[in-house]
Amino acid sequence: MSLVCSLWRDLIAVVTLWKCKSLREGFITKDWNQSVDDWKVFYFLCSLQRNLLWNPCAEEKMRSWRIDSYYRNKWKSQMVNLKAEGYWDELMDNFRPDIVVKDWFAPRAYCGPVVWRPWWSDMIQVAILNMPLAQPLA
């Protein structure tokens, strides 16, 4: 191993580097007093926290969404490739970061009366797939 490689390895192993980067990015404050097992992993997990859905509010029409239907029911779905979003295999296998799924609904006064919907139309379904996609969604 060359001198540059060993110096670089030693530099990125220093806990202070990852604490400073976390502070600079706003992931922690100066008065942070919670213990962290691995500051490098903490930094990367914080930097990856964001909405992973493309076009979540359908502002670009239904681009990135697929409409699935069964009988008279229709659902929007979207495939999220965690690897493409920066989550590498070792991170997922060894540190198992939390994946938070939320749904948001805001009725509007101008949309008319609330329509009863069966309980199954409001379900969120999440599947973690560990296989290559044959055909990625647009």
Strand order within the widest sheet? Answer: 1-2
Count of folded domains: 2
Counting DSSP H or I runs of 4 or more residues, the number of helices is 4
The coarse overall form would be: elongated
Strand tally is 2
SSE map:
Blueprint: H1 3-12, H2 15-25, H3 39-48, E1 66-70, E2 73-77, H4 89-95
Antiparallel strand pairs: 1-2
What does this structure look like?
The chain is an alpha+beta fold and 138 residues long. The protein folds into two domains: 1-49, no CATH class; 50-138, no CATH class. Helices cover 28% and strands 7% of the residues. The chain has four helices and two strands. The chain has helices spanning 3-12, 15-25, 39-48, 89-95, and strands at 66-70, 73-77. A two-stranded antiparallel sheet has the order 1-2. Strand 1 and strand 2 (73-77) form a beta hairpin. Helix 2 (15-25) packs parallel to helix 3. It is elongated.
